[in-house]
Amino acid sequence: MEELLSRLLPILLLLVIGVVSKSVKLFSDTFIEELKGLIIKIALPAVLFDAFSTMKLQVSYLLLFALVFIYCCLLWAAGIGLHKFFPKIFSRFYTKGYMTGFEFGMIGVGLFGAIWGMDKLPIIMLVGFGHELFIWFFYVLFISKSKEASLSLFASLKQFIKTPTIIAIILGIAVNVFGIRPLMSANVIGLSLLAVIEFLKPLTSPLILIVIGHTMVFRRTNLRETAAYILTRLILVLGLGALVLLVIKRLIPDLDPLFDKAFYAFILLPAPYILPLYIKDRDEATFFTNLLVYSTVITFIGYGILLGVSFL
Q1: How many domains does the chain have?
Q2: Which of 53, 106, 201, 256 lies 20 to 30 Å (CA to CA) from residue 95?
Q3: Can you give the residue range of the structural domain that contains 123?
């Protein structure tokens, strides 16, 4: 119990710092947005580069990426089915966008790194990379059709390769595959870059958690509809996710012992925060914005339960 609290309380305190800082106006919204940019463009890519340049790579991981991609597509299809066959409960057109995808960048890395350590990040990234492929080559393409100028496959590919986190992952894999990491450790410039990464690693999770706390704003919403969406998503991602995990472990048996927890930690995350940005209807965009805030709270509760179960 003591160890459980020692992992959960720092996370809660950092979130509280974020919430309190907003209520007392310690930081402006502009500063928080700039801090978020610093995390997404510098700190997070640095951590991901370090993770992928040091992790053990296997050809079988390609199968894992494909299974995660298929899993996300099935959740999308389930969302379409819910809207079509149960329109009275799931009346929102973008139900499909909420039932699939996971907010890994800002929420997942911060929570997983804070609980299990940034050095364990490569384990959850095995799930995260297949998910990123889904987001950029499926999710964004279809969700963006709601806008006047929808994204083409080429435009999506262009955005994908320009994303700092993706660049960091690709560079990390290249450094790993071609054995460049030892060369980096053998000269002053390389050592300096690695030292900067080591400075950034312990700061990334705390900063992310403070930003999350600062940006969480609870507004009044339709409680029954909100509960229906959240509970249905939980049932779908956990039910289908458990089956996918069984398939993954059957096909790739030599995964890290922490992989099971990492997989569930990933699928407990809320839907992508970008969803409301692609919705033209103001009422629907507001609903999903509020829904994502409450979904994030459920994620924190889910992580607490997951961590508690791991100590049984």
Answers
A1: 1
A2: 106
A3: 2-310
